[in-house]
Amino acid sequence: MHHRVGARGRCGSRPVFCAAMDRTRGHTGAGQTAGRIGRRVLAGLVSGAVLLITVSALAFRVSELSSVSMSPTLRPGDWVLVNRLIYRLRSPRRGDIVMFHFPQTGGREFVKRVIALPGDVVAERDGRLTVNGLVVHASPTRAAGGRAASTRTAALQRVPADRLYVLGDNWKTSLDSRFWGTVDERQVVGEAILICWSSGRHWWDVRWSRVGRRLE
Hints:
The chain is an alpha+beta fold and 216 residues long. The chain folds into two domains: 7-62; 65-198, Ribbon (Umud Fragment, subunit A), CATH 2.10.109. The protein contains four helices and 13 strands. The strands form three sheets. Strands 1-2-13-3-4-11-12 form a seven-stranded antiparallel sheet. The protein has a four-stranded antiparallel sheet with strand order 7-6-5-10, with no helix packed on it. The chain is elongated and about 80 Å long. The N and C termini lie far apart (96 Å). Mean pLDDT is 78; it is low at 2-10 and 140-151.
């Protein structure tokens, strides 16, 4: 006669080896659960990192400065972080440092400061540049290469709609809106907001005092 032996029959009153088997199964189950949680956390972190990198690539870019036209605010060898989304949220403001393409120079990128907005009136007489009657610079202007412009007199100019009047901080050597006119807002890449790296002639010549400096 054969008797059917169930789990209770095999373990009887739960001898030691059955209890050990139960504990082993419990540890195995807990380990599998922890493993699944760990994999989910890792997958979430990877997905988040990929999303962050993608958003950062779309929203920001880094560009190196090679001109002295924005000195001392920006110097050759400075790498600036440019916010490419900011002007989708708001319009440019006076004082913003912007990066833009200028079609008349083959689409090269420039970095200048916005000093006049659409509707503003700009005038220059004997080096005195005014915006809406307020003096911006009160010294003779010079184009790049030392071309003096101290005796020129420019007629009043009202900045057209969707255009910006930009000027280099180092206005004595800057080629800007005084010489090639206003900038189409559609050509603006974004606002330069931060110096993220700065070096001299050699890569090891790091100008640490400039790294991380916010642009104003």
